[in-house]
Amino acid sequence: MSEPITVLIADDQELLRASFRVLIEGEPDLRVVGEAADGIAAVRAVRSLSPDVVLMDVRMPEMDGVEATRLICAAGDATKVVVLTTFDLDEYLFATLRVGASGFLLKDCPPADLLRAIRVSASGEGLLAPALTRRLIREFAGSGGAGPRAASLEGVTAREHEVLVLIARGLSNDEIAARLYLSPATVKSHVRRLLAKLRARDRAQLVIAAYEAGAVTPASG
Question: What is the pTM of this model?
Answer without folding.
Answer: 0.71
